[in-house]
Every structure is written in structure tokens, then in C-alpha cells.
Amino acid sequence: MWACFSPLTKQNMIRGGVMYSLERPVQGQSSCPKDRLGRKRRTVVSSLTEDEELTEILKSYSSNKVTTTKYSFLSFIPKNLFEQLHRFANIYFIFLAALNFVPVVNAFQPEISIIPILLVLAVTAVKDLWEDYRKHKSDKFINGLVCEIYSRKRQMYVDQRWQDVHVGDFVRLSCNEIIPADMLLLYSSDPHGVCYIETANLDGETNLKQRQVVRDLPRQGSELTPENFHSRIECENPNNDLSRFRGFMEYPSKARVGLHNNNLLLRSCTIRNTETVIGIVVYAGHETKAMKNNNGPRYKRSKLERRLNVDVLWSVVLLVIMCLTAAIGHGLWLRNLKDTSFLIPDTTSPALSGFYLFWTMIIVLQVLIPISLYVSIEIVKLCQIFFIQNDVDFYNEYMDSRIQCRALNITEDLGQIQYVFSDKTGTLTENKMVFRRCTIAGVEYPHEENARRLEVYKEDEAMGCSHTLKSRASAKSLSCKSLSCNRSSVSLHTLTGHSEGEESPSPTLPQHSAFSSPMEKDIVPDPFLVQKLNCLSSPLFLLRDASMELTYIVDFFMALAICNTVVVSSPNQPRHVSRTPLKSLEDIKMLFQRFGLPRFSTLSPPHTTESPRSFTRRLFSRGKAASFTPSPSPTPTKLGTEPDGEPNLEASILSIKPGLDGNSNGGEGPPSEPGADELIYEAESPDEAALVHAARAYRCTLQGRSLERLLVELPGMGSLAVRLLHILPFDSTRKRMSVVVRHPLTNQVVVYTKGADSVIMDLAESPKGAEQSDGRQGHIREQTQKHLDNYAREGLRTLCIAKKVQTSTEYDIWLKRHAFAETSIENREELLLESAQRLETNLTLLGATGIVDRLQEEVPETIEALQRAGVKVWVLTGDKQETAINIACACKLLRTTDQLLTANCDSKEACKALLLELRTEVERGEAAEGTSGFTLVVDGHTLDFALQEDLKGDFLELSRRCRAVVCCRSTPLQKSHVVQLVRDQLRVMTLAIGDGANDVSMIQVADVGIGISGQEGMQAVMSSDFAISRFKHLRKLLLVHGHWCYTRLANMILYFFYKNVMYVNLLFWYQFFCGFSGSVMTNSWVLIFFNLLFTSAPPLLYGILDKDVSADTLIKLPELYKSGQNSKAYLPSTFWLTMLDALYQSLVCFFIPYFAYAGSDADMLSFGSPINASALLIILLHQVIESRTLTWLHVLVLVGSALFYFSFTLVFSVVCVTCSPPTNPLGVDKLQMSQPLFYGVCALTTVLALLPRFLFHALRNSISPSDTLKAALMDQLNPDNYCRRMQHWNQTQAQSKARGLIINVEDLDIKIPDFILPKELKECRAATGSVLS
Fold first, then answer.
1. What are the pLDDT digits (tens) for 1208-1220?
2. Residue 754 marked ligand-binding
């Protein structure tokens, strides 16, 4: 009974931002997680049960109270301290503080030594406490929400807080209420047991999802009565898989029914379009799937941080060397002493004294390891994130969204990206699918008027009148602010059921749905196709040879309308409308039979007994039927049979109205009121919505959907109910979806399939023995393939449409196997996949569609800017090769001057040979002059071979030499493997950007993952490090903020090392004059506070606000980004040069005061006073030299730091008598500051210490200025001078052959956009050339 639920064959999958491991378990082991009591499955019964054992089981499950905080009142201090001790630096400084309490090795007052580490720990603790308090407030609000729970005592539903919900409780929810816990749906007010939910709070998708009541649940009357529920539920233990739920419900009769994901209502989703639902809680609180997927911010180690750790280790090495030198020197000094009368007699040997001194020097020189650096880095990164998130250029007004920074510690990596891997659909394109054209039965319909309509929309959006985005914004705002259930679900019963009263519907607000903008909905039909459909209104068409083609056309649009999972809603339709008898439908069916309308598989004309005019009048005189219900006749004619009992023929032609643009009533009766039949389609993908809207444009309208039926309006036929037998949903393995329906006229089982052309074309095989059909199908396949190739070259997304008619025997055989797969618990997914593949064979190809998905705005400019910045852009897409190449050309990834290399191989050997051949061709091209570049296009099949161990080296070497790479027909797994291969083998910084769940794997593998909050939900966003709304935002995110974040943080880190090493060396030089005794020439308070307080604020401001180049210039000159790619701001050589400079400055800072006070009566502290003051001035002015930006805030902080130091030391020397035993600093600094020699020494020391650095910068900037400096200087020019300088820049850079900013000749025709430049510069457009983008 407690056996594992599913030893499912597993694969690595990514859902909702979390990597799930679904690998096959080792034999003999369980693949199911165990609960807290060690059970492998969960048992759930009603909380009203009297069984004590079951009650105890329910109590063992988690309550619904959610706590996301890490600390409690009592655990905060110990737990936070424990977490901070995970940092090696904190352990190191705590060790030193403890070491200073040992009398033998202590350097100064033990109490003072703990101040730095206590301050660092306190600052970090306060930050953690503030973050935790914010989580506590959020938890309190959510736990306090109210829902209706069934009470045993009161025998009614009562209001309870969410935190009081437990597993086994019955929860009743109404429309627009949020689901408090994961519940099994037991009752819905919908007569068909359907419930609609919106999962926007879970995955960001606003389209409605359909859930259904547990199958075969005994009817409980008008509403489920909890006391009568005695079933037992067995389900899998809590997990984070949002798309899977396995279990069964056992009724009191011991009958069992399988439970699936469609029966589960997930926490945080919202009830829509359903008046009342009741469910029993199976997972609560932290065991719900939503909480299992709530992982919080992502944490990664940046490249700069890894480099920092190496330099910290070098600092440790340097510290050990200095301490060893002092220890050895102290031992030798003691051994060579002749007269020790001034020393206290001690029996300690010189060697042991040297050992003790080693630890004393560790304490004295501890500042060499920058204790405050880590805290400063965290503060700087938080401020950088604040600036990024509040950049108005990242705000999307229509979607009301801005950039999200989900990873808090890799902002500087944005400035070092070398490879960008991008998805195509929804990332480079709008992912707003619009029906563009189609081919049916081998005949292409170009829809030229529809093309012109799309051009009008494009022009309107270019002028700032974006229809699509406004509609999308409306959808978001209305869905978030919905207060009543004002959208009724148009399921079958809502259109055909009797109204129990004549109440008028309440007025409702117009609502918009995803993928339903005017551009997507208002499709202009092709006149030639309309003309063919209008021919159906006359029986003369039966005598034409085109009748077979027309059957394909009707079937094609039927498939577009019903082969989907679209939920139909209506904004202003009442819940009930009056019935219309089925008599009209029966009469139409009788007419089909009487006049012998042809089958789909025959071309023979019918034998009619009436004239064509009489036939037309009788067929269309009944007008439009709104709906239908079962006939009240006591002897109804069985669907699909003749009156004499003979079976009807295959699914046949449904009559079309006399004119698609004519009166729907056929000329009789008043026309329908405007908006009376307005429908809203809630599609899971834009492709589905586009095809449903296309079918509706030809009056083949999907009007409603229920669990078992579809309501479809056909031209001239009114509304017909199509019995829905099965839905075989789309998956990435099959690359198609199918619906199995029973035709309303013939009662035959028909399979409609749509999917990728690469799959459908292979499955579209003619049935054996159908020679005539085989010839026609061969012609259709040939013509359709030509049209598909043309569509791909135009950049259209293609889908093929096919059908299959099943005989009763075939269907019964398949149904038995499929029923077993559906009710299976173990290996259910694999069995369903096999079942679908058995059905989807020998399909009859109907046609194909071409759907346009336009590029987002500024995509070509963004890609061009990235390429000029030295970033290599790869596009990884699942589209056809022709489509991918077309998009690559449109977005300027592939330039007209590039040489295109294609790799399409059928075997590993051919792939190896081709890679070597292409590599040789690239090498020849690189050797030849005038070659622009190469772009490699690889299909998915070839990519499989190229990613194998023995070929990936050749593939990588070839792709590395190419300017761009396009991988088409690639799977999500291939995408992640490509990113990982480039990242690991080339050791480069990678960025992956995508918008859908299929991009999650590569987003997580890349060094930086960018999610686009587009049309495909929030899976990519939840898995990303940063989330943006448009691809164009990537340009500023990398070129501006990435450049700033990297240079600021790198310079701040170097500055921290510099100031610490410079000050520590002063203490080290003093050891040569005090017998390496560990003494210092300053009081311990100044020693501790010097780096911790006096010089800590300026580097923070340096890391937050320093700006070497303005944002406009960085956008206009993408080449400046290369400095970050090459880590020019923080190289190993830069680090060691900084150390040498600090060494020189420390020598100057120590020995000038030493020689100035030589021979005087100055004591130790008097000698140290000018050294400390000079060191402070040198360190502060050093930052002034290095800073690119000086504002009043910088001046305030720098001057404030200096004043703080002098004020502190002056007050300290006046009031402190015994603050620093055994020394007495009383009056020392006061006396020094009253003498002119003090200021003269400080001034001379500061000038001589900084003079080499100042001269170095002056000479370098004059003789060989960096590109960044030249760009910064241009920022300071007026517009006229700026224009002339930019023109000169272009001329010199275009001719330069040296490394740096090299402008390709083919880029010289780039225009300067108006929106970037000031008005004064627009006149210089022709002169400035190509650098500005």
C-alpha cells in the first residue's frame, strides 16, 4: 500500500524557475520523496472523520501558516551570528580579536580590537533584520486573508484565516477569490464540473486554465455536503512540479478513480468565470507547490568577486611575509643585544619571542586584510541595483513594468559580457502572432489586403500609436482590479440552457484578453478564398471539379477553430439564454442526406430530386440558429444514420452562408445587434489565438467550450455542438497537438492535428489502397512544401494542419489502450505519449498557415550596438532554417556583406567533414583582405552531432571564428548545452536571454540570465537574474549600467587594497626602528578607526556615483564596452602596480617625517601624528586623482572625512588621559597641530607621495589617451565642438589598424537616430558618420 507512487522515467526539466531532477531511480530505490513520518505517499481524508488514526495523520501534515522569515525574536542573534561565521573573513577577524586577549601576544587594548569586527557584524545584522522584518509583514498579511471553511460544530461554512486552514478541510470559494491552499476540486457550480482559474500570481500567465471535478464523483445534489464525503485520497508527497499531480480517490465502494493535474487547484491562483467551487485541501502552507517553488533571490559569484578572492589570498601571503620578517628580525635583534638593562629580565628565548611576535604582528597588521571591503561591496551593489531599477528608460508604460533585479550580487558581470545567446520568438520578436496567409489543398491564398492592414499597424506604432500594447495593458489592469465575476464562461450550457428567470444581465465593463488586440483579431479574408466559400451556397458547385477542394477548405477552418485549448469568454453575455430546438439542425442533416452531399473522399456529384434554386431556398431559409438542444421528439433520428438506419458517410461539408460579408440571417429578419456575439478568447499561446481568430474571420467561430463539447458556428449552419472525445496536448517531443471529436452530422470519429511542418509532413501519408487520394495527396504535399519554404523565407512561422478519420473498430482499439494510459499512475506520461503517437499516423494533409511575428522595436539597433561592443550574438531558435535566416537578416545579425555558412548533416561523419571544410573556408577568408565576416547557421540535427565529445572542439573553433551563429530547430536541452560549451571551453562571460519555459535551462546555465516578461508567462523571469520587458533594454543594461557597475566596483576594490596596504606599510617600516617589537607610533584608537571610519565613506561614494563616461556617450559609442570585456579596470598587473604605488607612498609618508623630526625630542606619538595626518590626506587626494566625477557630494564627503579625523584626534588628545594605556596621548596632537612644522611636513609629504601618480596620469592622457578618456572629454564639449570631434573620431578610427576602437568600413552607412541627439547635433548627421548608434 505504501509502495512508491511512480518510478517514472525522468529527465531534467525546468519549471517555474526551479530545476527538477526527474531521473529514473536506481533499481530498488524509491523515486518518491518521503514525508516527515517516512511515508512515501500521502493519505488525505475529510477533517470531519471520527477515525482517530486518520485524524492523527492529518495533524502530522503542515498547517497553512506560511513563514518566509529566517529569524525569530530569540533565534536572531545566534542564528545570524552563525550565518555570518560562514564567511572566512569574519572568522579571521574574530580569531584576531580573541588572540589579542592573550597577554603574551596582545598588541594593544583587547577591548579595542573587537570594535571593528563588532561593527561589521552589527551592520550586516541590521541589514538582515530589516529584510526579515519586511518578510514578516508580508507573511502576516497573507496569513490573515480570509476564506470560507466548513465547520463541524456549526455545520456551515464560516470565515477563517488562511493560517487556520489544514489538510482535509473543505474550502468554498467564489469568483475572483484567491485559492488559499492546494485543493482537490470536488464541486463546481458549472453543471459540467468545470472550473476556470487564472495563474498570474503563480507563473504570470493571465489566460484562463480549465480545471475539472474529480471524474465519477457521485452527485451530491445542488452542492457538495461535506458530511457525506467518505472517500479516501492517496496522492504523492509534496513536490515542486507545477504540471504534475498523481494519485487516486477511493470511494466507500472501494472503486478507485485516478487523480491528475486538472483536478488540482493550486495555491495563489484565482477563481475566474465560476460562481462557486468546493475543494478539499491536500497540501497546505509550505507543502504547497507554490511555496515549494518560492526560492527567493538568486545568488551567484561574479567574476570580479572570484578575482577579489585571489587578491585577498595574495594579501594574506603578503601579511605572512611581513610578520615573518618582523618575527625573524625581532629574534635576531634580541640575540645581538649586548646591554639589556632597559629590558625587563625574561627567560624567554629569542626564538620563542620571535614566535610570539609573529602573532603580535598579525594583530598589528590585520588591517592589511580589508575587513570592511565585503560590507562595502554589498552596500555598493545594493545602490547599483537601486539605480538600475529606477532607470526610467527601463519602464514599460503599456505593460506597467520595469526591470527586476533578482540576483543581487552580479551587477558587475553585466559589464564583462562576451557572448549573448538569445531566443527568437518573444525575445527578438513581439510574440504577437497574426494570421498572415495560408495554403489549403495545395492552393496558396496570399491575403494581400491583410498584409496591407499589418503595414498600417506598423506605421501607426512607429508614430507612437501602438494598438497592441495598449490592449495588453488593459488586460493587466482589469485582471488585477476585477471586483466581480463580470465575465461569464461561454461553455455549452450557457448558450443552450433555459433561463430560470427573465432577469436582464448586469452591465459589465468591456474586457480584453491576452492575444486579442485589434491587430491580432481584425483579419481581412482573402477575396479568392471567400469567393470559393460563397460557391458553396449554390448547388451548382456540386457539378464542378472543385468540390473536393472545398471539402478541404471547410475541414481546414474547422481544424483551426477546434484544435486548441482556447477558453471562450463573453464580456456582456447573460449566464443563460433561451433554448433553440434542434429541429433546424435535424432538417439540415436530413437535407444533407436527402440531396446526397458528397463525402470528403469522393468526387462524384450528388443525385438531387430538386432544382438548385429550390435546394438553395430550402437550405438557407431557416436563417441563423443560435444554439441547439436535444430534440424533444420522442423518436429522434440517431445522429450519423439515415432514416432507414444506414450509416452516413464521412464528416462532410457544412453549408456556408450565401455571403461571408452578408446578413447572417440570409436576408430575412433583422440583423444581429452589434457586439451581441462578441467573444473573448483566452488562449495559452499566441499561435492558438491567431488561428482561432483566422477561423472566425471566415465565420467558422468557436463559440463555447465545456468539458465534453465544443460549440462551433459554421456559415449558414448556425451553432453546432461537436462532441469532444479527447485532447492530446502539445509537447516538445511530438511537436504537435490533436483533438479527437465526433462529427455532429456523421457521428464518425475525426482526428484534427496541427503542428510543426517537419513533423506533420512526415506523418501525412495516404491510407493504403487509396490510389486516387494518394495522387492528390502527393500533389498537395508537394505544393504545400513549396509554400512552406516561401513562408519561411519571408520570416513567417509555419504550422501544418491535417486530419484523420477513424473507423469505429480502430477507435475502440485505440481507446482501450488510451484509457489504460490515462488511469495509470506509474509511467503515465510515457504511456500517454505512446498512445498519442499511435493515433497520429497516416494523416491527410489539409494545408498550412503562415503567421507573422514581427520584430520588436529597436532590435536591429540593439544587436548592431552589441556587435560593435565586441559581443558575439548567437540566436538559438526552434524555427525552420529559412525563418531563422530571414529573422537574422531583419535584425541585422546577418549583414548583406557576410558570407553565410550552413551546416545540415545526416550523419556524424558528414558533420565532421563539413566542420573541417567550413573551418578551412573561414581561415582562407580571414587571410584574404576585404572579407567582412562569416555567419554560421546550424540545424538541430547537425547540432546533435556537433555537441558530441569528439566533434565539439571543431564546432567551437569554427563558431568562434564566425561573427554570428544561428542554431535553428534546436531543443531546450541543446540550447543549454551550447551555452555551457561556450562558457566552459572558451572561458568567457556568457549571457542568455529568453521569454519562455523552453529558455529556462540556458538562462540558468549562463553566467547572467535575462528573462523577458512577455507573452509566454513568467517561467523565464522567475529563473533569471534580471528581468526586462523588451529586448532593446539590453543595450542600455549592458553598455551603460554594466560598464558603470564594473568600473565603479573594480576601482573601489583596488582603492581599498591601496589604502590598506599603504597604511599598514607605515606600521611595518616603524618596526625597523623599534627592534621589531610590535610597537606602533600611534594610539590604538586611531589605528583601529583609520580604515574603519576615517577613510571608509569616500570609497563608498566612489563605488556608487563615479561616472567615467555619460550614458548618452556610452550608447553612441558601444566600442567603449570592450574595456570591461577585457577586465582593463582590474587586471593582475593593475593590482600589483597599485600595490607598488602604495609601497612608494608609504615610504615617502614615513621617511619624510622621520628625517624632519630626526634629532628632535619628539616622542613616539608625536612622530606618529604627522604620519597619520599625511597618510589621511594622501589617501583622500589619491581618490580625487582617480575619480572621474567630482560633485559637491564628493567634496562634502572628502572634506568631512578629513575634518572628522582632525576633530577626533584633537578631542581625543585633549580629553583622553587613560584611553590608550600604556601610552598617554594627552595633548600630543594638540601640540603638533599648533606647530608650523607639522603642516609643512604634511604638505611636503602629500605632494611628493602623489606626484608620480599625477605625472603618470598627465603624461599618459596627453601622449596616449584611452578611448574612455577621449569619450569623456567629448562629453564636456559644446554641441558644435562635439560634432567636429565626433567627425574626426570617425575618420581616425576608420583608418586605424591598431587595437582599440576599430570601426568596420561596412558600418559607415549607419544613421544617427533623432531620439538620441540634441537638436544642435541633428544638423551634423551626415558628417558624424557611423559611430553614433
1. 988 888 887 666 6
2. yes
